[in-house]
Design a protein that fits this description.
Length: 214
C-alpha cells in the first residue's frame, strides 16, 4: 500500500497555532476603541466598566513631550556651574550670618551641610548628575562630621587628609547611589495596560474551530 502524497501546504499543529495567535494580535492592533468597547459588551463586560477602565488608562499614560531635544555639552556645563555656584553662595551666605550673630562653633559647623544641601537640591532640580554627586556627597560628609563633633563635643576629625578622605567617601557614596538608582528606573515595573493579561488574549483553539468551520 503506497503512502499518501505529502501536502506541501499542510502545517504542523504548533506552526498553525503560532500563525493564528500572530494573526489575532495583528487583528487586535487594528481595532478602534469603539470596536473594542463593542467586543467587550458582547463578551459580557458592562459598558460602564469598560469606560471606567479607559478613563483610568488615559490618566496613567505618560505624557509624551512634543519635541525631544538633546542637551548640549555647553548646556550641561552651564547647569553644573549654576548648581555649584548656588551651593557655594548658600554656604557663604549662611557663614556670613553666623559671623554676624557670633553663633557657637557647633551652629557654625551645621551651616556647612545646610548650605551644601541647598546646592544639591538645586542640582537635582536642574537634573545635573555631576553637581548633584559633588554637592550631595559633601553635604553627607559634612553632616557625618557634624554628628561626630556633636557627640564628642570637640572637632573629631583632624588634619587635611582625613577631611579629604571623608569628603571623597561622601561623593563616591552619592555617585554609586545615583548609578543604582538609574539602573533601577530603567528596569522598573512596566506601565499599566502595557501588556494585556493572558486571559484577554483570544483562544487559539476557538480560532482553529472557526477556521475549520469556515
Amino acid at each position: 500500500m503506497s503512502a499518501s502524497p505529502i501536502d506541501p501546504h499542510r502545517l504542523a499543529e504548533d506552526t498553525k497555532r503560532q500563525l493564528l495567535e500572530r494573526a489575532a494580535e495583528l487583528d487586535q492592533d487594528s481595532l478602534t476603541l469603539q470596536q473594542l468597547r463593542e467586543a467587550a459588551v458582547e463578551a459580557g463586560i458592562s459598558a460602564a466598566a469598560f469606560d471606567q477602565a479607559v478613563h483610568e488608562w488615559r490618566h496613567t499614560m505618560p505624557v509624551a513631550s512634543a519635541v525631544s531635544r538633546p542637551v548640549t555639552v555647553a548646556a550641561r556645563l552651564l547647569r553644573n556651574f549654576a548648581a555649584l555656584a548656588s551651593g557655594w553662595a548658600a554656604l557663604l551666605g549662611l557663614s556670613a550670618i553666623d559671623r554676624l550673630f557670633a553663633v557657637p562653633w557647633l551652629v557654625h559647623k551645621l551651616t556647612d551641610p545646610l548650605g551644601l544641601a541647598v546646592g544639591a537640591a538645586i542640582a537635582v532640580k536642574l537634573r545635573v548628575r555631576t553637581a548633584t554627586a559633588v554637592l550631595g556627597g559633601l553635604a553627607v560628609s559634612q553632616t557625618a562630621e557634624y554628628l561626630l563633633d556633636f557627640i564628642s563635643g570637640a572637632p573629631a576629625i583632624h588634619g587635611f587628609a582625613p577631611h579629604v578622605a571623608v569628603m571623597l567617601a561622601g561623593i563616591a557614596g552619592v555617585a554609586v547611589g545615583q548609578h543604582f538608582s538609574r539602573r533601577g528606573s530603567r528596569h522598573g515595573p512596566s506601565t499599566p495596560f502595557a501588556e494585556p493579561p493572558s486571559s484577554a488574549k483570544p483562544d487559539s483553539g476557538a480560532l482553529e474551530l472557526r477556521t475549520a468551520s469556515a
